[in-house]
Specification:
2 copies of one chain form a homodimer.
Chain A: E1 9-13, H1 18-28, E2 32-39, H2 46-57, E3 61-66, H3 102-116, E4 121-123, H4 139-152, H5 154-157, E5 163-165, H6 173-182, H7 207-219
Parallel strand pairs in A: 1-2, 1-4, 2-3, 4-5
């Protein structure tokens, strides 16, 4: 955890999944958190309900930002005509569940909101270990985004350095679950499945479900996930 | 103008103002253009009508992207409770018309759309001469954005370099007007005023109006702007 900047406010990207719930728990130890969740043409709207509940648990304010779905078409996560694939450990490269420029867009809204709220710290739950081949989850991307953000904003120009925190970047899924478990995250309230139903129940078969299930096993923590 | 990449498609940020209209004219000489305009809680909606008309003139497809206004509050351009200031040549620093992280957000949508459309070229009408003190109009910002974009996207990872073009970056307002005039831009159809009315008529007093009026004088081109 880097040194805390003079402002005690932080913006936390909160999807409602396991990773971002853990990030919120970590950030809440050091900052007054404002959580933001994104609404787009995603299949699992139950994630947004989970996010709201998690923000409340960690006494964070919560904001829902609408993303224009027209910009995000062409991915299995946003386009109903593309099937979500089952997990294939032999698959290489960037999967069809990749959403074009997703983390760039999410961080850019976080940056605007950080500037409005005079926050200098942004937390995002990207992970370089279980990153599923998404280019915008790599440390090199986050570093380049931070450099750009400090040139883009009034705060950066005035010398108040913006910091993008990625506390999960080098953790395995099991590490993440152990950390969150110790910090009181209720993982039963989180939704990771790419095609969760309205009740937040998971398919158990997609890439995200498989990584999550394995994480609980390896962490030695009982898996509270409800499967349909 | 850099060498044209193998893809002949380009994404052009088109506000409907004088600068972006000129950018579209320049880009159209070399690329099959897809223009995008942003709808947010901006005062001059007449700009969006201007953008649609300009795209049609240059045979570009046109897409309107809605920006969630909640992320953009706190600026004179998006917040009705903040007055648009009159031009003050003695004013230093970043003006109240600054919109938090605006170009970062706009470029991030352009990046997502470029990836969906397999375009590798994005055009934006930022200008380092008449930049009004906005940090996200500086060459250093654009360069950092381009570096980040190439790390963020599937195209960048696969070696198809994304390029952010800023053809106006070193031009004076007079240079821009002369260039666009030669390329057939109908400046009567463009709206630059921060508080234009529904008919696209300009106040003649704000920062943007003053820069535009002076540009036409210095270019020796008759000013077709309709003032209210």
């Amino acid at each position: 955890m880097p040194a805390i900047s003079p402002s005690s406010k932080a913006i936390v990207l909160l999807s409602g999944g396991l990773d971002s719930a853990t990030v919120l728990a970590i950030a809440s130890q050091h900052f007054d958190c404002h959580a933001i969740s994104f609404s787009y043409a995603q299949r699992s709207l139950s994630e947004l309900n989970a996010a709201k509940k998690l923000a409340g648990h960690f006494s964070a304010s919560h904001q829902l930002v609408k993303i224009d779905a027209g910009a995000m078409e062409g991915s299995a996560l946003t386009d109903e005509s593309v099937d979500v694939p089952e997990f294939d450990p032999a698959e290489q490269g960037i999967p069809v569940t990749y959403v074009p420029a997703r983390n760039t867009l999410f961080l850019s809204y976080a940056l605007a909101i950080a500037e409005v709220r005079a926050a200098q710290d942004i937390f995002i739950g990207v992970n370089a270990v279980d990153y599923s081949g998404y280019p915008d989850c790599r440390p090199a991307f986050i570093h380049a985004y931070e450099v750009m953000a400090n040139l883009a904003t009034k705060a950066g120009v005035e010398g108040n350095k913006l910091c993008i925190h990625t506390p999960l970047i080098d953790m395995s899924k099991a590490d993440i679950i152990r950390t969150g478990n110790d910090l009181g995250v209720d993982y039963a309230a989180t939704v990771s499945c790419y095609q969760a139903n309205e009740q937040g129940e998971a398919c158990g078969r997609c890439d995200s479900c498989q990584l999550r299930r394995k994480g609980f096993e390896q962490a030695g923590v009982p898996d509270p996930t409800r499967y349909f």
